[in-house]
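Final report, results section. Input specification for complex C-07:
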Amino acid sequence: MYNPAPMTEPFRFEVQATDGAARAGRFHTPHGVIETPVFAPVGTQATVKALTPAQLDDLGASLVLANTYHLYLRPGPEIVAEAGGLHSFMGWPGPILTDSGGFQVFSLADRRQVDDDGVTFRSHLDGSEHRFTPERAIAIQEQLGADIIMAFDECAAPDDRLYNEQAMMRTHAWAERCLAAKTKDAQALFGIVQGGIFPDLRRQSADFISALGTPGLAIGGLSVGEAKVDMYAMLDVLEPRLPPDRPRYLMGVGAIDDLVEAVRRGIDIFDCVLPTRLARNDAAMTRLGRMNLRNATYARDQQPIEADCDCYTCRHFSRAYLRHLIVAGEMLSATLLSIHNLTTLITLAADLRQAVLDGRLEAMVTELRRSYAKHRPVEA
Ligand SMILES: [Zn+2]
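Structure output:
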C-alpha cells in the first residue's frame, strides 16, 4: 500500500486537472514554480549551448538541467559551490535539475567498472581515474545546489533481461543509500525507476521506488535505443503504479511524438539535448517534422521557419537568412535555431498542459498526429 510521507516544504506538487492519464500540475521549488507538463532544456556544462539565460527566459524555459558528471570533472563541484551553487554560477535564477552522473558514467562502456558499492571510471577528458558511489553522487549534487537532484542509478541496455534484473536491484539499493546520504532540505531527491523493456521488472521497480516516498519519481533506461512502441508500452505499465501525487520525470526524451505520447501516459517532466543538438546541425524542429536549413531549396525562401511560430527567430528572420548563416559558418545560426527548437518543445508542452486543463487533450493529439504523419517526410 502506497502511503508516503507528505512532501515537505519548500516542495509541493498540485495536480490541477487530469484528462485520461494526463495531468496538468504545478511543482513548487525554492527557485520558482514549474508548470507541468514541462520540457527542460539541457545545459550539460552549466550552459544551454549557444544561449544566454536571458534568451532562455524569453523563450519560456522554466526548468533547466545540468549534468553532474561533466561539472564534477570540470570545473569541479568545489568551484561551483564557492560561487554559491549553480544558480549564481550560471546566472539562471529559476529551477535547476541535476542528474546523478550515473547515465554518463555507464555510457563510458569500457572506461568504467561497476561493483555493488559504486562505479570506478576514467575521465573522457584526460583518462584520470575517479569513483562515484551513491553517497558521492549526492555530495556532489549538494555542492552543485540544484533544486531537483537524482538518485545514483545503473542504466542497463534495455533488452538485456539478466543485466536489467541486476541493475534494477542495484538501483534500488543505491536509492536507499542516496536518501540516507542526503542532508539538504532545499533539494528534492527523485528516485529512478529502471527495468528495461520488461513489464514485471518495471512494476517491481515502480513499487519499490514509490515506497521510498521521494517527492518525485524519474523513469530511466528508456529512449536509449529501444523501439518507440516498447517505450510507450513501459509507460502504460508504469502509469497506474506510480504515485498520483508526485511529479513524474521521463529522462532524456524530447522527440515531438514521444513527448505527446508520454504526456498522454501521465508524464510531467521531460529533458533532452535533441533541440539544441539539432540546432547546431542545421535542423529546425517543427510540429510537421524536421527541416534541414542547409538545403539549397531554402536559398531564396523568404518565409520564417514556421509562419505561426511566435519565437524571436521566426518573428525576425527568413529561411533564406538562416541558410546563409549556416553556409557561411556563422555561429548565430546555432543560437537562432536553438531558440526556435526549444520554443517548439516548450510551447508544445505548454499547449498540451492547456489542453489537459480544458479537457480536450485527445482532440489535440488527434490533430497533431494527423499533421505530423502527413508532413513527416518533409525532409529526412
Ligand atoms: Zn520559431
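The two ends are 48 Å apart (CA to CA). The chain has a mean pLDDT of 95. This concludes the modelling results for the funded period.
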